[in-house]
Amino acid sequence: MPSPVPDERPSPPSCGDIVGLLAQRDRRAAFAAVELGATTPREVAEATGLRPAAAAAALHRLTAGGLVALDDQAGAHVVEDAFRRAVAAEVRISGRRTGDGAGAYFRRGRLTAIPGAPEVRARVLAVVAETFTAGETYSEPKVNALCAEWLDDWVSLRRALVDDGLLHRDATGTAYRRA
């Protein structure tokens, strides 16, 4: 088997990171202001009543923590998938999902096996599929590397993701996209 390629995407904030970021009142207020449309430190300060320096500091911490992103054209905006990615990472680390039967297949952030029962299999594979960003094209070595992070038998995992319609493979069999 070819050796997998390491993942180069930045890690999402953990659930603990998010709680820590939002534990401070100024950062919660700044996050809410950005969620409601504020795009600059000045707009955040006006919306929250924070001093401009406090608003800028809160935005800086939220950006450094991965909850807010700054764009030269659009300004500050909420990172839409930060919470989803944090929960997916938590499931991966803890191996737990809330009573849906999928948790039994995760240990220390990895799969122990691919479930046979269709409902549980679908839930387990949905967690794995969140590793892939929608709209991004992945080479076969990259897919192999990401699947290898979940299960030693990454070939079977890749096949299961394709068979269950969570990954689409192109006609040449060399590129994949999340469904």
UniProtKB/TrEMBL annotation:
Give start and end of each DUF2087 domain.
Answer: 110-178
Q: Which InterPro entries match?
A: DUF2087 (IPR018656)
What is the name of the protein in this document?
Answer: DUF2087 domain-containing protein
